[in-house]
Amino acid sequence: MADLAHLAHNLLTSGPHKLEPTDRRIRIFFNGTYIVDTLAARHVWEHPYFPQYYVPKSEVKGGALSIGDVVAETPKDQRGLARVGNLKVGGKDTDRVLLFEGEGKLGGLVRFEFGAMDAWYEEDMEIFVHPKDPYKRIDILPSQRPVKVEVDGKVIAESISSMHLHETGLPTRFYLPKTSVNWEYLTPSYTISKCPYKGEANYYNVQVNNKTHRDLVWWYKTPTSESLAIAGLVCFYNEKVDTTLDGKRLERPKSKFA
Q1: Which of 158, 175, 127 shows the shortest CA–CA distance to 25?
Q2: What angle do CA 232, 234, 237 make, to 5 degrees?
Q3: What is residue 77's predicted lDDT score, i.e. its pLDDT?
Q4: What average pLDDT does the chain have?
Q5: Which of 28, 35, 76, 150 has the fewest CB atoms found within 10 Å of its own CB?
């Protein structure tokens, strides 16, 4: 609960990074019931990286939401306050809910924690992990420029064809056929990650010169529809490997994954 109080305090004192309305139909599913079905949701950027959906309190199913204690407020100028809420449907409940009151930007809105709900829908499409950023896009382009990947001087993969994935705000990723990999250097990893744009990824470690580079390689067995072109292909963190593209050694990009 302390994390919600901290978030509410930051939002009330500094404001959200950005807030915009959306005309998408947003539905929230919890314990067999749509507790929200609205055309009045807001994209709220709590930080610069991606938004969450906040919905008007008036759009929440009657009787499902109870209001709890104040966890943050701005008493000097009365811009607003935040309370915790409890969502209960049948025998299932969660307190991962914030309700905002007052005259501030978030007044009258409710934040349901994405992972605490059973499912979220934009129109008729289920979404995963978090809402997609409307200012972010993915382009996947086939290329016949040769790609070579090395770790500590060893060639881990080399291919004359690849798929180049361009994702807003991230380095270009080079997805290669599994047949281009020197599998003697790879070992399975139990790590799984989820991306709202690409789906669920599985990982491999790279072991070279008695050193293990964990989760350096990933692949999507069944990616989302927008990323089907990379199904079954492997990709390397080019922040952590040496990549040669069309005969030219690329600089390692700087990103949050470096």
Answers
A1: 127
A2: 150
A3: 58
A4: 94
A5: 76
Specify the amino acid at residue 140.
I
**Token representation of residue 158:** 């080399």
| Residue partners of 77: CB distance under 8 A and separation at least 6 | none
* Residue pointed to by tokens 């009045």: 40
Single out the residue of 21, 237, 24 nearest to residue 122, CA to CA: 24
Cβ atoms of 87 and 30 closer than 8 Å: yes
Long-range CB contact pairs, 228-234, < 8 A, 24+: 229/140, 229/142, 229/163, 230/140, 230/163, 230/165, 230/175, 230/198, 232/178, 233/162, 233/163, 233/175, 233/176, 233/177, 233/178, 234/157, 234/175, 234/176, 234/177, 234/178, 234/181, 234/204
250, two tokens: 């690329």
Position 161 scores a pLDDT of: 96
HSE, side-chain direction, 13 A CA sphere, residue 118: 13
Amino acid in position 35? I
Give the type of residue at 223.
P
Angstrom distance (rounded) from CA 129 to CA 151: 31
Gap between the Cα atoms of 171 and 245, Å rounded: 14
| Contact between 126 and 32 (Cβ < 8 Å) | no
Taking the C-alpha atoms of 148, 152, 153 and 154 in order, what is their torsion angle to the nearest 10 degrees?
Answer: -60
Q: Which pLDDT belongs to residue 55?
A: 98
| Global pTM value | 0.86
In this structure, which amino acid lies at residue 56? P
What are the start-end ranges of the E strands in 145-185?
147-151, 154-159, 162-167, 173-176
Task: Give how far Cα 78 sits from Cα of 75, 99, 109, Å.
Answer: 5, 16, 16
Based on C-alpha coordinates, what's the Rg of the chain?
22
Euclidean distance between CA atoms 254 and 243, whole angstroms = 14
